[in-house]
Amino acid sequence: MRYRRIVAKFGTSLLTAGSDRLDLEAMSRLVGQVVRLREAGCEVAVVSSGAQAAGRHVLAHRPPESPDLSRQALASVGQSHLMQSWDELFEWHDVVVAQVLLTRRDLSDRLGYLNARNTLRDLLGCGAVPIVNENDAVALDEVLASRIGENDSLSAFVANLIDADLLVILTDVDGLYTADPSLDPSAHLIPEVDAIDDSHEDAAGDGPGRGGMTSKISAARVATHGGAAVVIANGHAPDALVTAAEGVAIGTRFAPAANQLESRKRWILGNAGVNGHLVVDGGAAAALRDRGRSLLPAGVKDVEGAFERGETIEVRDLDGKRVAAGITNYASSEVLRIRGLRSDLISETLGYAYGDEVIHRDNLVLL
Questions:
Q1: 275: alpha, beta or left, given left = phi > 0 and alpha = psi -120 to 50?
Q2: Which of 38, 45, 87, 109 ranks highest by number of CB atoms within 10 Å?
Q3: What are residue 308's phi and psi, to 5 degrees?
Q4: How far is residue 39's CA from residue 272's CA, in Å, rounded to a whole number?
Q5: Structure pTM?
Q6: How far is CA 231 from the centre of its chain?
Q7: Secondary structure of 302-333 in the HEC alphabet?
Q8: Angstrom distance (rounded) from CA 33 to CA 31
Q9: What is the CA radius of gyration of the chain?
């Protein structure tokens, strides 16, 4: 496979096959493709729509005098049915799934971002398939949500969150056209976009409404700036997800604006605070510089200043030279208590643990 860490976003029209309920046969075909990617050595996270459609179907026979339900209420009813369907379909392949509910507000908070990143990383590491959905029950109000674009933008945030190589947005259209093909017979598919500009959003032409092509272009802009390639394709095409992961032309492909290392490095360095830093011994400095290791508490000699968990801080050696910058899993007060200890003593010392590392290598950039 050309790509190794993939986010697959499945739209409602794909999961329902155009009906008013979840279509298990259509979902099963998607599951089969995810399983094939995993067998080829890929890690796959799924961003799934369909909760509202499932809820609407379950509540279809409610009394006629019942009030109209909000998207939050419909999703609250449908989410368990959606997850049950995914769970049963993946179980046939002996694959474990995990439900992850997020809101954009979670990801804008530094601790929420770090918690979500660590959780998704751990799930992928243990071989589970995260099924990510927006937590509609506590999500933004109807008007604002309609301006954001349902799960399209969430899929881009997830791609950046886990440093995905590829985001595949599967829908019921073939990709981005030069114009609306239903209105303009001369419109043709755009197979490759090197850099997204206003002309591509103009070509989408459907306004900022939830789930349309404009929201997919916006998602592609976010994900490509984070270093991922993006493919928008028709999920009804046979093996569309596998084809995209192989790097074979399908739908519209958006090239990454920067490689992941450059994008991640810019983000970390741009957010490095001045509240404090860590001092590490020679062995830890060498492990970071020469072997690309994570920073473990055993290598920390001292803590300067005060910082909170989730902040970006510098790491310096005993001579005061800057070694790296990264996002810390622990606050300065916690690092003071666990410095010099083996990682297996973190929980015993603090009464809890946020991971074996003070700074994980995925959240660390050498200086």
A1: alpha
A2: 45
A3: -105, 160
A4: 39
A5: 0.77
A6: 15
A7: EEEECCCCCCEEEEECCCCCEEEEEECCCCHH
A8: 5
A9: 22
